[in-house]
Every structure is written in C-alpha cells, then in structure tokens.
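U., I forgot to send this yesterday:
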Amino acid sequence: MSLHLTRPARTTPGRVWLVGAGPGAADLLTVRAARLLATADVVLHDALVTPQILTLCPQALLISVGKRSGQRSTAQALINQQIIECAYRFDHVIRLKGGDPMLFGRADEELVALEAAQVPYEIVPGITTAFAAAASIRQPLTKRGVARNVAFFTSTTAPGEPDQAALPGCDTLVQYMGGQEAIATAKRLLDRGKAAQTPVVAIENVSRADERVMRMTLADMVNGIPDCSGPVLVMIGEALRERS
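Result:
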C-alpha cells in the first residue's frame, strides 16, 4: 500500500529513529526525543501519542499508525512497510511510540524489517508508563522487606500464541493494557493462592490531565475495573498498599 507521498523514492535511505514518547505528558519526553522531533521530516506515531507531543514537530509530515486494543488498527506488516517507504524518501524519519519502544512496543518486528531493508536506525528510550504511574501515586514498585522484584506483563498475544501467557511470580505485578483483562487476571491470581486483600491500583491515562486513579483489592478486581476510555495500567502487590 503506497503512502502516496509526493517525494520520489531514492536508492539511498535516510535514517530512522525509534523514539519513546513516554506515558503521555509532553514534559516527560527526554530532551533528545524533543530535539529529534523538532527536526523530523516525517513522524509515524501511535494512537496513544498525545496531541501535545505532536505539537513539538509542526514541520513534519504526520502519519498515524495507531494501535489500540479493541479498535481498528494498522497491521504491523503495513507499519513496517510504511517506515521503510518513508526512509527511502526522507532523511529524518521518526517512529514515535508510546512509553518506551523496547517494552511492549513491537520494536523487534520493526527492527527486523529495517535491517532487512538495510535502513540505518537508532533507538531513543522513553519513560515507560509503570514508572510514571508509581511517581504519580507516590508509591515505589519495590519496598524493603515487602517487594524485592517487579514483573511487567501483558495479556495481549500474537496470532498462534496461547490466549493466556503464564503469570509471572513476582512481588509486584504490573499489567500493561490491563483494563479489559482485569477480571481474568484477578481470577488467575486468586486461583494461584494470591491473597484476596492484595492491594491493586489501576490508573487510566497515566501522567495526563485526565488521569484517574482507582484503588481496590484483588477480590474487588474480580468484578472488573470501571469502564475506561483511555489506556489502563494495573499494578498489583503489597508495595501498593497505602501508607498509614
């Protein structure tokens, strides 16, 4: 599928940067990410990248390649093709991903495609949502004597994978894109022996103006999380218990 770009293709590619947009707030971008956006020719961005961040690259051609759970999204193979097609038309191409591109960002598929097409690239990390969420509620994900390890996981699977991957056995669990999977996650943890009163914090739209924090227990989460229109991060474990 062609991008219908006016600039003709060339034999030598430009450079691609895979850039982490962070959790959403524009002022949580890294300085390097902001500098690159200001000089980009084209930016291929996810649906979760906020309009405030996109104002940092007014000179760039913006291409939405949004991927949202439960909604129509651009197939990954097409995204790969679009990135490469842009690289052979522009000098400075940014693939802008929510959070950090190396965590649940399908970066491996894009890197494989770039390497196969012999397109040079760099990776610019971003603040992953879990760290922004912990800062927002002012509770560390680790706590001396309570939580010595943390696991990030998602229930989203690729075609051909089991519907439910094994849950990690860590003191603090952080489930990305966890809103729709909350009931199943709670039931599986309870069946595994996790205490019903284990604290849970679900946060919608982490770091944004419309951020919403919902506190509950694992027993409460069996009934689901209130309807949310934005992305939800679910954090589970004793480290999340409110300080007295």
